[in-house]
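Tutorial sheet, problem 5. The two components below are modelled jointly, 230 residues in total.
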Amino acid sequence: GAVVSQHPSWVICKSGTSVKIECRSLDFQATTMFWYRQFPKQSLMLMATSNEGSKATYEQGVEKDKFLINHASLTLSTLTVTSAHPEDSSFYICSARDPRQGALDQPQHFGDGTRLSIL
Amino acid sequence: GQSLEQPSEVTAVEGAIVQINCTYQTSGFYGLSWYQQHDGGAPTFLSYNALDGLEETGRFSSFLSRSDSYGYLLLQELQMKDSASYFCAVRPSYNTDKLIFGTGTRLQVFP
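Model answer (structure tokens):
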């Protein structure tokens, strides 16, 4: 089945550091991918839609300059948390839909997530 | 705004049946999905309803009433491994597969 890989799975770094998270679709091409943030015991909050070859679409309240998204190829989207601070510590998850499955109502496939801890 | 409300926690014993409700208020509606997430893991797809009625997939069933902006996930013959968080999700736009997730329900199954 469709697989989405996310790397790294766990990051600890100092405040002020920029952190890059990669999301890859391993066996399908995805023109769009999605980035979510999840705080402990809370829901998945959609941050942005990553669009291959064009600018990402950010959800209301998400800082574009803080969370840089690049989707340079059909199999890779990256999320860079710039100048990270302790309040950015969270679980970041990406997802994509396999277009071979047809309609837009087909399920999203999620990466295993990246746990980011800023000291 | 968009809101999908779920009970925060449900408990049950092995072999029992539980129902997790979801009421939604979204800018648009193009289907209700259910996802399961174990602690520290990725969400995995369980079920999907585009039209009113019941969809059955093994031990899991999902129901939708669009007129009531309401759906539920029914889990039968509960097993310990079903202990996890469950999220409903709505696709609010026709031309995108973006999902808005519910508040989530933590299910604890006891022996």
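Marking note: Residues 3 and 97 of chain A are 10 Å apart (CA to CA). Full credit if you identified this.
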